From TrEMBL:
Classification via Pfam families: TauD (PF02668)
TM ranges: none
Keywords (A to Z) from UniProt: Dioxygenase, Iron, Oxidoreductase
InterPro entries per UniProt: TauD-like_sf (IPR042098), TauD/TfdA-like (IPR003819)
Protein name: TauD/TfdA family dioxygenase
Gene Ontology MF, one: dioxygenase activity
Organism: Streptomyces rhizosphaericus
Record Gene3D superfamilies: Clavaminate synthase-like
Protein origin, superkingdom: Bacteria
Length: 300
């Protein structure tokens, strides 16, 4: 590796890189040292704790950025090591069942996403890309939201951003504190082995999506992607009403993600997985951070 990378770290990543330099000791973000690899030899970092002395970035084709950490080596000299990306690992893992989880923080998610060239997607028009999700009563909830209908109770399976012309590819939930309210997950992958995949009525039933002045008709499966949210999608024919019943029945066969540790990250493939919040009546103080993305073409 050259002593100095060709470009400095982008401005939007500077605060995160500074945090790394000030707070990391060998293992950035508290991960195991196997995460840091020499790009030339694929060898991992040395076993003893060492302090990084510099962070730089090199822009790559496709909008990606590689963050390189310069580490002091105890025996003298220094080298650059590429930080393996948490989101890249999670995305690869999610190809198996549609979601994946690990320890991490929202800042780490934003840094990795910027390096990978993922585009942030605000779920609500004019709103921020990062949303803090709290249990609220119907009177306090945004119109047409699931909270407006279900309040602090259990929510039905849904696609985030189903009211958008193109829902986000990936939804990421993070929680700094443990929570006793699970996130429920259901993947269409279990139907991939069947001829035709999902039932015909799921694929062809017509829904009217309520999206302000931009309402439109759609189906629950389009272009290989799932789109379903009973909060904003009204069934318009017999097949779509069957589809509603189908998804309701699937709530009995979900997998629960337990937020039983601090600083967790849950990546959900929003194109093929429906998710839902369990009842939060007993936990009104629950807070989950959500950020959604469109992937770049390479990652898709």
């Amino acid at each position: 590796m050259p002593d100095e990378p060709a470009t400095t770290i982008p401005a939007e990543l500077l605060h995160v890189a500074d945090w790394i330099l000030l707070n990391s000791t060998h293992d950035p973000f508290g991960r195991r040292c196997r995460r840091c690899q020499d790009p030339g030899t694929a060898q991992t970092m040395p076993p003893q704790p060492v302090m990084p002395s510099r962070a730089s970035a090199i822009r790559l084709p496709g909008g990606k950025v590689d963050l390189l950490m310069r580490w002091r080596i105890e025996r003298g000299g220094s080298r650059y090591f590429r930080m393996a990306r948490m989101l890249e690992d999670l995305l690869n893992e999610s190809r198996v069942r549609g979601w994946a989880a690990c320890q991490g923080t929202l800042d780490q998610v934003k840094l990795d996403a910027a390096m990978l060239g993922w585009a942030e997607v605000p779920i609500r028009r004019g709103g921020p890309a990062v949303a803090t999700l709290r249990p609220v009563d119907p009177a306090e909830a945004a119109p047409n939201s699931l909270s407006a209908r279900y309040g602090k109770g259990a929510q039905p399976l849904h696609t985030d951003g189903a009211h958008l012309p193109l829902p986000p590819d990936i939804v990421i939930l993070t929680s700094a504190a443990p929570s006793t309210t699970p996130t429920c997950l259901w993947s269409r992958k279990r139907y991939s082995g069947f001829i035709g995949g999902l039932p015909d009525f799921v694929q062809h039933g017509v829904f009217l999506v309520s999206s302000g002045n931009d309402s439109f008709f759609t189906t629950a499966v389009e272009g290989g992607r799932l789109r379903y949210d009973p909060g904003c999608m009204m069934p318009c024919d017999a097949r779509s009403r069957q589809a509603v019943q189908f998804f309701q029945e699937k709530e009995g066969s979900v997998v629960e993600h337990q937020w039983d540790k601090p600083n967790q990250v849950l990546l959900i493939d929003n194109r093929r997985v429906l998710h839902a919040r369990g009842s939060a009546i007993h936990e009104p103080q629950r807070e989950i951070q959500r950020i959604s993305f469109y992937l770049n073409h390479e990652a898709s």
